[in-house]
Each structure stands twice: as C-alpha cells, then as structure tokens.
Amino acid sequence: MSEDAEQQAEEIEVLKSIYEGDENFKQVDATTYQYKYIEGDKSFVLEIKWGPTYPTEKPKCNLEIFYNQHLLPSVKEKILAIVDAEAEQWVGCAMTYTLFECLKEKVAEILSEQTEEAVVARVEKIAIDDQTESKKPEKKEQLTKAQKRRAWDRAEIGRAGEKPRGWDWVDIVKHLSQAPHQPSS
C-alpha cells in the first residue's frame, strides 16, 4: 500500500470520527466528501474529491452541484478562491477537515454577497429567456381522402394481405334476435 493510500485511509477514519452525527457532513464515496454550510436561510454544499495521489496534490473542490444552483457565480468564485488558497498551504498533509473548517469561519462573510435580489433577478432573467423561446406547434401531415381510404384499407387487411381475426364473425346477439325462438315440444 502506498504512502498516499495509507494517509487517505487514516484521514477517512479521522473524518468519520470527527463528523459522526453531523447531518451536514456526507461521504459520497471513498474519495468524495461533501459539507453543507448554513447561514440563516442561505446555504451551499462544498464537495471535495481526492485524486489518486492526495494528499501530495490538492483535492478537487466542486460547487457545481444541483443544490448550489442558486449561488451567484461571484460567490462560487470567492468560495473556491478561499478553499484553493487554504489547500496550497496544506499540500502534503491531510487537509479535508481543515478546508471544511476554514469555510465555517467565513460563511457569514461569503454569503453576505448572496443577496436575494440578485437571485430573484437571475431567476426572472431565466424565466424571460424561456418565454422568448416560444415553440411552434408541429403541423400534422394532411392526407387526402384517397390517402386516408388506402390507409384504412391497409389497416383492415394487414401488411401481409391477411384479414384481421374475427372479420367475418357474426354478432351472436344480433343473429339470435333475428331468429324467433322455437320451444321444443
């Protein structure tokens, strides 16, 4: 087992023990971890993914998660800049806990730029863009009477020239109602 793999295994144990019972921490898989930051009614999720040579290389930090759609691009850039600067200092050491914790201290400052007016304006812009792209209804192909008749004839006979099952069956109720019932004497 390589030294990086040993350090990763050790860090997994440490993270599990530290964040045990913390609803905001989530281990997605063996090398991907997420932490949810909440400040009032605003929140975001930071995902950290380890590469094969972590911790001798910086982990990949991701904010492009469905949960973070409401975040403004400037806020995302600020978060990634803070995490990247912190990760630079800790290359060669286990840093997932440190990266999560450095953001905890700055959540209020980071989310202060995330104003509801900006989010509402962005949503309205998206809604307006959707409305301008009106879709034209598709036109149905118009068939002539002769084309319709041929289509019906083909459907009744079938593709192989066979008539459908029961085409010559007699309606039993209709047939019996036409013939008078004769009681046997």
Automatic annotation (TrEMBL):
Pfam families: RWD (PF05773). Transmembrane segments: none annotated. InterPro entries: RWD_dom (IPR006575), RWDD4 (IPR042770), UBQ-conjugating_enzyme/RWD (IPR016135). Residues 10-110 form the RWD domain. This is RWD domain-containing protein 4.
